[in-house]
Design brief:
The strands form 2 sheets. A 5-stranded mixed β-sheet has the order 3-5-4-6-7. A two-stranded antiparallel ribbon has the order 1-2. Helix 3 packs parallel to helix 6. It is α+β, with helices and mostly antiparallel strands. The radius of gyration is 17 Å and the shape is globular. The chain has a single domain, classed as Glutaredoxin. Belongs to the thioredoxin family. DsbA subfamily.
């Protein structure tokens, strides 16, 4: 795993209709301190019930896997280029695994990527997620915030979302704050401290080679 990311400044700022997190970029491990410093006092008041889990697979599948991942985490991108595709073919598409994807926010860019991925609704979420991870090395290094936002918009347009809707999604400050509160609730409850991390039938599992992950899933299916 990569080194622990540290929070330089955790504050909420809303400027020009956009939501900004004054955080450094990171590449695998969660910050030790909260993402939202100045908003901590209001954190308990944020209603996260409007945020839906993004799910693939049969509702009654015998194994439930929750993945916690960041769009700016290279380890997560590698998993989605390899292990996830095998997992989908072997277990999700065959009705054996119900797969839930939950975003982790190391930085503002990962949050923006999440807002673009969710902009097309559940039916487009996983397709956009694939595009975001596939192009991670390009969009995340496009330059400053404006250039990165433009690259994320390009991904959204590629998925069939128009500019007006993308601008509305990226400028939705309430949604952004709610997503961060939602992430914090789940990550705290499940004791998530690195990405990608997995919860398999209620048990926390660290990232590992797909062969080992497959064996673990098969053991769950045999129970």
């Amino acid at each position: 795993m990569s080194r622990m990311g540290t929070v330089i400044c955790a504050a909420v700022a809303i400027a020009a209709g956009a939501y900004w997190l004054s955080l450094p970029s990171s590449s695998g491990n969660l910050p030790a301190s909260p993402l939202i410093g100045s908003a901590d006092a209001q954190q308990a008041e944020v209603d996260t019930s409007s945020i839906a889990d993004m799910v693939q697979g049969a509702e009654d599948a015998p194994v439930e896997i929750i993945e916690y991942a960041s769009y700016t985490c290279p380890h997560c991108a590698r998993f989605h280029e390899d292990g996830y595709k095998q997992l989908k073919a072997d277990f999700i598409d065959t009705g054996k695994v119900r797969f839930i994807y939950r975003e982790v926010y190391f930085d503002r860019y990962g949050l923006w990527a999440s807002m673009v991925a969710r902009c097309g609704g559940p039916e487009k979420f996983f397709g956009i997620t694939d595009l975001i991870f596939k192009g991670q090395s390009e969009w995340s290094r496009a330059g400053g915030p404006a250039e990165i936002a433009d690259e994320l918009r390009k991904i959204g347009r590629l998925a069939g979302i128009d500019n007006d809707k993308l601008d509305a999604c990226l400028g939705d400050a309430t949604m952004a704050q709610t997503l961060v509160a939602w992430y914090q609730e789940h990550a705290t409850r499940d004791e998530i401290n690195s990405t990608p991390s997995f919860i398999v039938n209620g048990k926390k599992v660290e990232n590992q080679p797909y062969a080992d992950f497959k064996a673990l899933i098969e053991a769950e299916l045999a129970n």
